[in-house]
Write a structure and sequence with these properties.
Elements: H1 5-10, H2 14-21, E1 44-49, H3 53-62, E2 69-75, H4 79-88, E3 96-97, E4 113-116, H5 123-132, E5 136-139, H6 147-160, E6 164-166, H7 174-185, E7 191-201, H8 207-210, H9 215-218, H10 221-238, E8 244-250, E9 264-270, E10 276-282, E11 284-295, E12 299-302, E13 313-316, E14 322-324, H11 331-343, H12 353-371, E15 377-378, H13 389-392
Parallel strand pairs: 1-2, 1-4, 2-3, 4-5, 5-6, 7-10
Antiparallel strand pairs: 7-11, 8-9, 8-15, 9-10, 11-12, 12-13, 13-14
The chain binds nicotinamide-adenine-dinucleotide.
Domain GFO/IDH/MocA-like oxidoreductase: 178-301
Protein name: Putative dehydrogenase
Organism: Sphingomonas aerophila
Length: 396
């Protein structure tokens, strides 16, 4: 291969191909290739549970772009909305379920995967019910509101011998994957410091925020909703697990939004390699989802680093200085196709329930430290991810 890096930049291929050319990828096992478009009859049917913002604006549109899975059923408490969405997506009337008759899905051969897109406090109930119907489960993040619920969900999946995948879309997002692969290659030296800021404003009058501002229903306000991207991000960028956590909180309890949930939370993780992660999250300061990784010889910046679209990866290092250009993909479509291939046994499960549980435990440790005035909490559950996304998932 004789293309220079400048050629690649001009071709818009600087990210992936440059990594391949400089033998970054050759140090890794071959990545799995996702399925080519399958014939209609072979695509696995997905039942989307909950027709709120994420389902209507991202997931259902993405299911029109998937190649190995397809929308097969809707589960909703609003029959009119469900009929409208079914009509828009050419679904028959008998593919609509209510929450009450959801369990009937067991007898629906059109559905192979149940995708739980409900408020966090309902994830456990619907995951366990879905496993009882014999279906596989894709569940939104955070996987639950408590560590105990997350453990119960994993146990239910094992008992049913079905797959449980947590919808960590950044594990399937090209810029994040490219950053992981570059960091793993060692070309920038050791990663030493990760900084993540995941912040946005919130509105108690928006029903989609109202449950997020309720501790019981969300499991942690901004921390559970936005901060989790930084917690998970620090772990996948560094490919290691923290051993110490300390955190601080500032919440204006006179603000009606923050009667039960914390607002601004900042934390530090110490990793066995000596790397440190600084994270912050808030529901009153908006709005960004960004990360930085400072390595011995370079800084990698994802800003934005975890948006649905328009993520931006920049490298501050000679000779790699500049923006890494990789074509956008629909992260949700990729993630759902990945789940389809997991069910087919073609690719590894890179974001299993255990990955979601690790974040649940870390959020609990962060909240514990905030309650204890920033005391260091020792955390080591001996968790090691089974599959590094940087190795298992192609960049694009
Ligand atoms: P939302 O409030 O817009 O939608 C939730 C849906 O659940 C609504 O249709 C609501 O009617 C329904 N519902 C059923 N029972 C309910 C009850 N008892 N109380 C409240 N609502 C009830 O929320 P959303 O933004 O679509 O988020 C859904 C899930 O997706 C959450 O777990 C959230 O963390 C996750 N999420 C993930 C991403 C991502 O990028 N992966 C982005 C947004 C949301």
């Amino acid at each position: 291969m004789s293309l220079s890096r400048r050629d690649l930049i001009e071709l818009g291929l600087a990210g992936t191909s440059a990594a391949l050319i400089t033998n970054v990828a050759s140090a890794q096992p071959a990545v799995q290739q996702p399925a080519a478009k399958l014939p209609e009859g072979e695509r696995i049917g997905v039942a989307v549970v909950g027709l709120g913002k994420l389902s209507l604006e991202q997931i259902i549109p993405a299911l029109r772009k998937t190649t190995g899975v397809k929308l097969a059923a809707l589960v909703s408490g609003h029959p009119d909305k469900a009929r409208r969405v079914a009509a828009e997506n050419n679904l028959p009337a008998d593919a609509i379920y209510s929450y009450e008759d959801f369990d009937r899905i067991a007898r629906d051969p059109r559905v192979g995967i149940v995708y739980i897109v409900l408020p966090n406090f309902l994830h456990k109930e619907y995951t366990i019910r879905a496993f009882k119907t014999g279906k596989h489960v894709l569940c939104e993040k955070p996987m639950a509101t408590t560590v105990a619920d997350a453990e119960a969900m994993i146990a239910a999946g094992k008992a049913a011998n079905r797959q449980l995948m947590i919808a960590y879309r950044c594990h399937y997002e090209p810029k994040n994957l490219e950053a992981m692969r570059r960091i793993r290659s060692g070309r920038y030296g050791k990663p030493r410091l990760v900084v993540t800021d995941m912040l946005r404003g919130s509105d108690l009058n928006d029903p989609s925020d109202a449950w997020r501002l309720d501790m019981v229903k969300s499991g942690g306000g901004a921390l559970a909703d936005m901060g989790i991207y930084g917690i998970n991000g620090a772990r996948y960028l560094l490919n290691e697990e923290p051993v110490e956590v300390r955190a601080w909180e500032h919440t204006d309890r006179s603000d009606p939004r923050f009667k039960t949930v914390p607002d601004l939370v900042a934390w530090q993780f110490r990793f066995p390699s000596g790397a440190i992660a600084n994270g912050s999250t808030s529901f009153s300061v908006g709005g960004t989802m960004r990360w930085d990784v400072f390595c011995d010889k370079a800084r990698l910046r994802g800003d934005p680093g975890a948006y649905y679209n328009g993520n931006h990866l920049e490298i501050f290092s000679s000779p790699d200085e500049g923006e890494v250009k990789i074509a956008e993909v629909d992260q949700f479509a990729r993630e759902m196709d990945w789940m389809g291939d997991v069910v087919r046994g073609r690719v590894p499960l890179v974001s299993p329930g255990e990955e979601g549980l690790q974040d649940m435990r870390l959020m609990a440790a962060i909240l514990q430290s905030t309650r204890e005035g920033g005391r260091t909490v020792t955390v080591d559950w001996q968790y090691k991810r089974a599959h590094d996304p940087a190795v298992a998932v192609p960049v694009a």
